[in-house]
Write a structure and sequence with these properties.
- By secondary structure, the protein is an all-beta fold.
- 0% of the residues lie in helices and 50% in strands.
- It contains no helices and eleven strands.
- The strands form two sheets. Strands 2, 4, 5, 6, 9, 10 and 11 form a seven-stranded mixed sheet that branches. A four-stranded antiparallel sheet has the order 1-3-8-7, with no helix packed on it.
- β5 and β6 form a beta hairpin.
Length: 122
């Protein structure tokens, strides 16, 4: 059974940091591109960061310089999102996704996690 399980969300004050994790299992994900999306209430799901199987990284303009995506494929694939200098507008449910390529388009991802809530207070 394929699973992507996110963890690490929570409540943090503006300017603080959080580190999200996404544990992938059920198949070999080392050849997959992995990404993080987020969805705030009343808004569409948006791409924020992606990483290729080779370690190439991509970021949305809104998070570039503050967020860092990384992956560990040593055993099962784990993808991380280090979030620094958090802002209230970063408040959203954060989702992990896997697909053949890094994509900004949610429907092009093959697998999704259940999401983890990140709330940034001002």
């Amino acid at each position: 059974q394929v699973q992507l399980v996110e963890s690490g969300g929570g409540l943090v004050q503006a300017g603080g940091s959080l580190r999200l994790s996404c544990a992938a299992s059920g198949r070999t994900f080392s050849s997959y591109a992995m990404g993080w999306f987020r969805q705030a209430p009343g808004k569409e799901r948006e791409f924020i960061a992606g990483i290729t199987s080779g370690g190439g990284t991509y970021y949305a303009d809104s998070v570039r310089g503050r967020f860092t995506i990384s992956r560990d494929d040593a055993k099962n694939t784990v993808v991380y999102l280090q979030m620094n200098s958090l802002k209230p507008e970063d408040t959203a449910v954060y989702y992990c996704a896997a697909g053949r390529v890094v994509t900004h388009i949610p429907r092009e991802s093959d697998y999704w996690g259940q999401g983890t809530q990140v709330t940034v207070s001002s």
